[in-house]
Each structure stands twice: as C-alpha cells, then as structure tokens.
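User: I'm new to structure prediction. If I give you an amino acid sequence, what do you actually give back? Let's try with this one:
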Amino acid sequence: MEKYDVLIVGAGTAGCLAAKTTAEAGLKVCLIERKNRAEIGEKICGDALGEHHFKTIGPSKPQGGELEKRIEGIKIYSPDKATVFKIAHEDFVGYMLNRRLFGQWLLRMALDKGAVLMDNTQCLQPLVEKGFVTGVVAKKMQTSETLRLESSVVMDASGFFGVVRKKLPPEIGLEREVANEDVEACYREIRQLKQEDSESQFCEIYLNQKVTPGGYTWLFRRGGAKINAGLGVCMQGSFPNPKNQFYKHVLSMPLFEGSLLLNGGSWYDPTRRPLDNMVGNGVMILGDAACLVNPIHGGGIGPSMLSGFLAGKTVVEALEKGRVSRESLWSYNCAYMEKYGVKQAALDVFRLLLIASSDEDLNYGMQYRLLTEEDVLKAGLGDDFRLNITETARRVFRGLKRVRFLNKLRTTVSLMRQVKEHYRHYPTTPKDFEAWRNRTEALFKEARSKLGH
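Assistant: Good question. You get back a string of structure tokens that encode the predicted 3D arrangement of the chain. For your 453 residues, that looks like this:
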C-alpha cells in the first residue's frame, strides 16, 4: 500500500492548483479523479474567468487556445430591460475559456511538477483513525478494484457534491450539508449562432424573478459566433425547472433564431459565503466543496484557483513542522477569508436582498439610480459603497409606495459593512472559533429576517 504526503480528491481547478503547489515543494502527491484523463476540464459551467485571477498561479497565462475570447466587462439588464448597467473595470476584464483545454493545462502543470494522477477512480469514503483523516477508500471504476490509499493530508476538491466532506464524522468539526436555499440549480447550453453581434465583448446578465427566481439569465459570447447561454434559479420553495425556463424564455430571443445546439447540461452552484471552517485534523476542503463561489454571479473558477494555491502553501508549511492537526492547518482559513472570504460574505448579504426583491423594485431601483453602476462595481469588488438617495428618488418612491424597498437597501448596506468587519476579524486560532461562528449565524439570521426571508 502506497502512502502519500497529500491525497487530493478531484482534479478540477482547485485540485490541480493544490497538486501543483504541493508537488513543486517536493511532496509526494496523488490526484484522484472519476473522469478519464482526456475528459478532465470538461464541466458544465459559465466558462468565464477574470484576468486578475491569473495572479494566483504566477506571471504566465496559457497560450494554447485555452483563452478563447477576451471580455471587456458586464452588462446588467433590469427585469423590464429598460435600464442597462454597463460595467467596465480591470477587475471585470477577463476571458471566455475553452474549459477542457484550460483544465488540461492546469493538470499538465501539476503532473509536470511530479504529482501522480489516478483517473477513472472514485472516492468512496475517508479513512479516519483517532480523530484524524488518514486517507480514503477508492474504487477503480474500470475493474471495480477497491483501493486503500493513505496520506498525511486529504484535500476534498470534489466540487459541489463534496464526497469527502459529506462522509466525515461530526467530531472532525466541518459542516457536511449545504441548505438548498443557498444553492442555484442551473442549466446551460453552448450554441452556434448564425453570426457574431456587436455586443460580443461584454457578458450579459438579465434579472427577472419570474423567469429566474433568485438567480439570473446569462449570455456569454465565445469565439467563432458561439455562445454560452444559461440560467440559474434559487432552490428554495417550489422552484421551477431551469431547463424548462431556458427553453421557454431564453431560446425564444431573436438572437437564437437558426442557432445550433452544440452541447448542454445541468449543474448546481453553491452561491453563499464560504464554509465557516474548511479544515480538520488531516483534512482540508477546497473550491466548490467549500462553497467558494461568488454569491452574486456564481463564478467559482477564480476562487477555486485561490483556494488550491493557499491550501497547498499551508500543507507545505504544516508538513515541514511535522503537524497536520486542525490547528496547524488553520492558517488556510485565515488566508482565504482575508483574500476573498470577506468579500464573499458581504456579497451573500447582497444576494439575500436580490432574492427578496420584486421585479418592480429592481426596475425602479435601477431606473432611478438608487443603485448605480459605481455601487454595483464597488459591491462586486468588495468595497464599501453608499446609497446616494436623492430627494427626487425619495419622492418618487413614496409616491410608488416603495419606501419599504428603500429601507431594505439601507439595511443591506449596513449589514454588509457589519459582516465585512466581522470577517476581517476571523479568529487566528480554533480557540476563538465557536464565538466567531455564533456571531456569524446571528448576523445572517438578522439579514434573512430584515430582508424578507
């Protein structure tokens, strides 16, 4: 039986970055992946990545067709489509990816540094001994052979389904389940259009609570007159089937007349703040498995890259000291919360506002600039912003009897600031974690109550 320093379940974005980071430090690393090697990178996804995220992996960007089209910004449409916010900023500049080629590029980086890949291999459950995760039980899918793989640290980078996280015993101290109301059910298709249009440099997002309750529709142009189009709906209550909504409301747009379906599929996106804690004795949770997705636009590729890099650095330091306890891995929590978790948690509050807002509220809020492009930009960047509510807007909203929505906006801004301040003081050791988590739960309970959940 082979024993590794690091065993990573899932060869996606987070898993490959973690494998590269640990392997290049000289550790013995194994990647376990259900897919065969040629399929790694294939994923139902929005396929967009901000350029600034490449700073995570170094100075170089891929040059072999992985970056399919450059994006100059985002356009956000009100439910009645009468108001459009056009946001162009360096942090919203990026690329549409060829997802398979990008995944293969990340995999090659990990393997070139010495990581070993076990493809066509399914993780069945973690091994736990004396309160520590010590490896996994896996199965070779082509032969049904059962494997017992041991390691000093196990990283769960298995995506939304969190196959390791969900089977950990309670004493490990990690959240195992994610509430449906914090998940988007999504459907997406890649289609060949008749021709490229003039707005192909901007990603488009459409808000409409009747079509996409708690979510949005997206149109992301790719190269060669291809388009990544889809929608997501919040999985609370009796939510509609996203594929049915797509065929009823999106494909009826004139843009898709005469288009050809290239591929399509469904997936789930955990659009909430990060797991409060992402480490236990001998185990770490990365990427989508740790809910590291932007709560507003659902983008998870960049945060996954960041988590793989930070988790890898943490493990290298921990193994140099010969300790893989929860305490010795805790700095991964601290580093992620500082670099992205603060922003993600604040945007989770903003998400609660959007879910609870009617189409009429959103139409008037955008039309009368209660929220401006600058406000949305600042919110997206995790910066503080102030509502510039003019007396004219107040009079208009009083006349429309929408003062309640004004108050919700004020409450949202206040709660976002409180949450950001709270997350800036994430505990530096597990000793103070329970008190911090209790305060977190109280803040989000207050947000759900005041914003209408």
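You can read the tokens as a compact description of the fold. Here is one thing that stands out. The first helix runs from residue 13 to 23.
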